[in-house]
Amino acid sequence: MTSNTPTPLKKPICYFDGVTEVHLGDMISAPVWFLWKKTGRVVYVPGISLMHPEFEHHNLMWVGVKCEDGMLFGEVVDPRTGCLLKRVHFGSRNASTCDLVHCKITSFA
Fold first, then answer.
1. DSSP characters for 42-75?
2. Could you tell me which of 18, 37, 96, 100 has the fewest CB atoms within 10 Å of its CB?
3. What is the pLDDT along the chain (109 residues), one digit of tens a residue?
4. pLDDT tens by residue, 56-70
5. Could you tell me if 76 and 14 are in contact, meaning their C-beta atoms sit under 8 angstroms apart?
6. How many CA atoms lie within 13 A of 25 on its CB side?
């Protein structure tokens, strides 16, 4: 798989309910490091975003979330269901512009 194409998926990634699809720009809240509950915007979705090796590797995938304070974290996608875990709460859709995660490809040729 090249990093300049989205990873093909059998079905879209959903929130825990299995119905609501995860979209770029969604506002979500989730605990980080079991200590803080952070709110942020979805900036990376496997199958939609261009493939990024930090969010897709070893047959696992993460949805990337960026907080207002600049913190970037990933929420694992359950490989059996294709859904985020129950601890991730969907807040709202937000179609305004946000900083998406991009993979810069460097050639050493």
1. EEE-TTTSPP-TTTEETTEEEEEEEETTS-EEEE
2. 96
3. 445 677 778 889 999 999 999 999 999 999 887 778 899 999 999 999 988 888 999 989 999 999 989 999 999 999 999 999 999 999 999 878 777 776 654 444 4
4. 999 899 999 999 899
5. no
6. 6
User: Judging by beta carbons within 10 Å of its beta carbon (0-12, 13-18, 19+), is residue 103 exposed, middle or buried?
Assistant: middle
d(CA 57, CA 51): 10
Cβ count within 10 A of residue 74: 17
The two structure tokens encoding residue 46: 């496997």
Contact 45, 6 (CB under 8 A): no
